[in-house]
Amino acid sequence: MKKLIKRIKRLLQRIFKSFASTSQQTSPLINSRPLETSIPSVPPRWESGLVLVCSQCANEQSGSTASENLENWLKSRLKIEGLWGEFRVVSTSCLGVCPKAGITVVIVSNGSGGNSPCLIVNPRSDVYDGLRLRELLYSYIKQNKK
């Protein structure tokens, strides 16, 4: 039995050594050119940031178009104020927050340093009427202007 265990250990050592030597070899495709140049990149059309509006939140709750209404209102407000181009409002699928009431809105700004605020906007809130809540959201977006 001891001899069998020693043989198995030696066999495993040879397998590990063989695996280690093949994993150190690099693929010629990976080293043929740097990753930075193999994927084309373009400068974004927005300067200050993106406003992501989850299209799934309102649909899951009531089948309404509350998220689409909010998105369209934000777009028109940015255009009226002359900020369209600095900011873009984009409809997105599920962001994984899934609030019980409200729409998830994420503001991704160039100056956020990776800390993008995730807001829950409830268009049927008792505290604010729809216009007041939208105005609060809009002022928050403007604060993130670079």
Task: Give structural notes.
This protein has 146 residues and is an alpha+beta fold. The chain contains six helices and four strands. It has a four-stranded mixed β-sheet. The protein is elongated, with a radius of gyration of 26 Å. The mean pLDDT is 75.
- What fraction, in percent, of the residue positions are helical? 40-55%
Largest sheet: 4 strands, mixed
Q: How would the global form be characterised?
A: elongated
Tell me the fraction of residues in β-strands, as a range.
15-25%
Please provide the ordered H/E string of secondary-structure elements: HHHEHHEEEH
Tell me how many strands there are: 4
* Order of neighbouring strands in the sheet with most strands: 2-1-3-4
Radius of gyration: 26 Å
- Structural class per helix/strand content? alpha+beta
Low-confidence stretches: none
Terminal CA distance reads: 72 Å
Count of individual helical segments: 6
